[in-house]
Write a structure and sequence with these properties.
alpha/beta; 10 strands; globular; binds zinc ion
């Protein structure tokens, strides 16, 4: 249930999946999200706008400039560490991420590139990490469990993907243990996403998220907690995720987002591997 009462400090020091108004169905600026993070005692915020066909039907590099000028964002902004990310759509059963196969011939000014690059290569040049999620599951509808499992594993194998996004909400069945063990081996994170507990997604989604969290605890796979906030108001509000983790006695050493230091250590290790 959404509350307007001023909440206490966030139970986790990091909120690593949030959106700005660049995502089009989100409403706050990065400055507003950072200000809210500061208010909630968040040490580190990850801004991860949609990098997918939700942004533009034209697939032109000019529609993705938001991700290409991240250098102007302060790394430390009013006492909050700001990480630069994307939430990228998984687009096929091979686990490819949006734009991987889209060749670009020219940059945002129209000047031709010396050699051929893809939209993904250009947009991801400046990002710290990606959250890989499924929003449109049409391509999975006739897939076998082996195929969807491989899909998630391959997405996690992308060097810049750090977090498997809301797999409990995507509604695509997969072999949980295989994917969670792959995440553990790769040093990557499985997301437990506050937005997945919104009433609109129903109890099936809650149950799926709970099962994923329980199995992460049993297998020793690290998780990333996030709000998936689409408005600054929701940054740092983890009521359902915090309650779930407490209820199942989730081991705190497997919560990568508990401290900024801990998250950065996981990030460094995963990106350097
Ligand atoms: Zn969204
Ligand atoms: Zn999101």
């Amino acid at each position: 249930m959404r509350s307007n009462v001023t909440p206490g400090p966030s139970p986790f020091a990091c909120d690593v999946h949030t959106h700005t108004l660049f995502s089009r169905h989100a409403y706050s600026t990065i400055g507003e999200c950072v200000a809210e993070a500061r208010l909630r005692g968040i040490e580190l915020i990850g801004s991860t706008d949609h990098y997918s066909c939700m942004i533009s039907p034209t697939l032109h590099v000019r529609d993705y400039q938001h991700f290409m000028n991240f250098d102007v964002w302060p790394r430390m902004w009013d006492g909050v560490q700001v990480m630069r990310g994307v939430e990228a759509d998984i687009v096929d059963l091979e686990g490819h991420l949006f734009g991987w196969d889209l060749p670009l011939r020219e940059g945002i000014t129209g000047k031709a590139f010396a050699s051929e690059v893809t939209l993904k290569q250009i947009v991801w040049r400046n990002i710290d990490y990606a959250v890989a999620s499924i929003h449109d599951d049409d391509f999975t509808l006739d897939a076998t469990l082996a195929q969807t499992t491989d899909m998630y594993v391959h997405a996690l194998e992308d060097p810049r993907v750090l977090i498997l996004g809301h797999s409990g909400r995507a509604g695509v069945p997969f072999d949980l243990d295989t994917v969670l063990l792959a995440a553990r081996e790769l040093g990557k994170l499985v997301e437990i996403n506050e937005h997945s507990f919104a009433t609109q997604y129903g109890t099936g989604c809650r149950d799926a998220c709970r099962r994923i969290a329980e199995r992460c605890a049993e297998l020793g796979t690290m998780i990333a907690t996030s709000t998936d906030a689409h408005i600054a108001h929701d940054v740092g509000r983890f009521d359902n995720v915090a309650a779930l983790l407490e209820e199942i006695h989730f081991p705190s050493e497997l919560v990568a987002t508990k401290t900024a230091r801990g998250f950065l250590d996981v990030w460094h290790a995963a990106m350097d591997a």
